[in-house]
Amino acid sequence: MTEIMTFPEVPARSPDAPASEGSTFPVTIEGDATPLVRLIGRTLRDSARVGHADEVLGQSVGTVAVRSHDTPQAATVVLDGETVEVTSGVLVEPDATVVVDLHARFASAQEPTGDAALAAGTLRALRPPLPHWREAAQQFWEVTRGIPGIPEVLTVDAIGPDGSERGQFGDGATEYLMAGPPDLLAGVFSGADDFLASLAAGVQIKGTLSQMSVMTAASWKVRFDV
Amino acid sequence: MFDLTQSTQDAAPSSSPRAIRLEATNHEGSLLGKNVSPAKFAAGKEAGFAFADILFAIDLGNEIVLGDAFPDWRGNLYDIQMIPDMSTLVEWKPGLDSVIGDYWLKDGTPVPICPRNLVRKMVARLESLGYAATVAVEIEATLFEESVQEARKVGYRDLTPLGGSTGATYHLARSSDWVDYMDAVVDRLDRVGITWEAWTDEAAAGQTELNLAPTDPVRLCDNWARTRQVMREVAFERGHTVSFMAKPTAGFGQGAHINLSLQSDGVNQFFAEDGPSELMRHAVGGLLATMAGATSIVFPQITSYRRLVDLTGPPTTVSWGVNNKTAAVRAVCGHPKYSRLEYRLPGADVNPYLAIAGVLAGVLAGIERQIGPPEQVTDMAWCLPDSVGVTRIPDTMSKAGAALDADPLLREYLGDEFVDFWVASRRWEWMEFHTKGGDPFAELSQWESTRYFEFP
Asked: Are B434 and A89 inside 8 Å of each other by CB?
């Protein structure tokens, strides 16, 4: 029997509440889910939480195949107007198929097929707006406190066109510094971007090898909830 | 205690080698090491030889494994010492001696995640209870006609089974290419002092089973790792390929059954006239209590879990039974000499040292805590309905890793440091598979063939 896990963090929102307060529709993923299923589930949860793409998550009905453009990763998103369920693979005939770049925040990599409106809506739901890097870093720091070896202090230097801005989260003796463009930092801290890939894209770090290893686990926590 | 000062192997080292090969496994299970000159070996054989700790953090795709907090001894790529166990020194081939070692920290304590040291630790704990373990293994492997270079060119796919494509166990009419290969293997084993008992044609095309003789746990692990090396080298020499992958093709799998008994003053303590002895029952209890977590250890690769198909040979349930080969643990009873447990779970791809350490940890837990076994399965242990109450073996790397992470017994016996390291390394492996090209819905994905066919 398939075990269904519901993200407990998704706040319930009354139908009359403003969109920013969260979603009435739970996003569920199967038990022992793949990283892609986890990534989609977490991303849709983020969208629901900020009221992004409500017209899709709350109203659309259909089955959408989500495929990676460069690996065999695939998942099925089933929307029934009240809930969203994400499972591994594509084992049914979908109403729409989207092919996405998982290294580029679900950017469409091929022309979608099938129900165009459903595909477009799903792609929109998979690309929630990034939070400000400072908000994302604060959330990242809070969510990752329980990981063994996580540095006590996260220092962030956001380096934009107008100069550098620093944020510091937590207190203690062990510190980790991350520096880079604000958008990229927001992507890593929110889980939209892969931490290790971000190092090749402009994020710089200061800390021990062990801390980098732990930060990898921390980034998986926010990106995949593992 | 083990005598580290002189060779006790049946084969002696050569009198004037050109080089000595230092050997040990990391977590993955293949022998790693380096060749050193006789002068270098003489200078370092007591103090040890420096190896980068990164050898415990390299995956089979040459990536650094990340995702856990490194213990203090790892630091920023510190060195650890590999100290050769001189009791293992043999002439490997003319001009080359071989010696197996263990990894130690500079303060003289064992590297906590060193597989060979983990076996030593379990052996010592058994000795403190008054028991000596005797273990043996059945090694399964598949042979292919093509050379490894040819195999690489085709991505290890669509290879030709050596000895023909008709799969049938025990056939003595296999063509001479297959027979000659196995003859060459056992000849090499004889020359390096590894005692084997039997080899035969196994169930699948190209597959063989080679049984190593019972001996003490550390020696058995050494022999097992070296036998794989011999089988690989003989394949290279003869222009063939051998694979210990859990499933080298989509069609069939291969395991590594471990047979175990405990002696006290030379008497088999698993023997009783009327069935399993009380000690055997406790050993079974411990093995089953730790089986879900131990699955992570004895199923180290993504492909390992593809073996878990009912009716195909491997056990699929956390089960035991007297003379029941469909169960995960088969109890062989009633004979003063041959009474033993057969732990049928491991795949051929397992790290020998970690497999034995995991099995001994389960046995120890059962004995020290007097864990009674569940009711034995007297029916077929495959395809059981849920209502029978026999749980299934975790069927994915992530499930097994979670079971190990939560297993207080294996944490106690193998150590938190090892369990944390292993769980993190499997999480990394799982992530690599899913995000770098593996396909969970394929019978066997190319990513797996590329990564696992040659090693361990």
From this structure: no
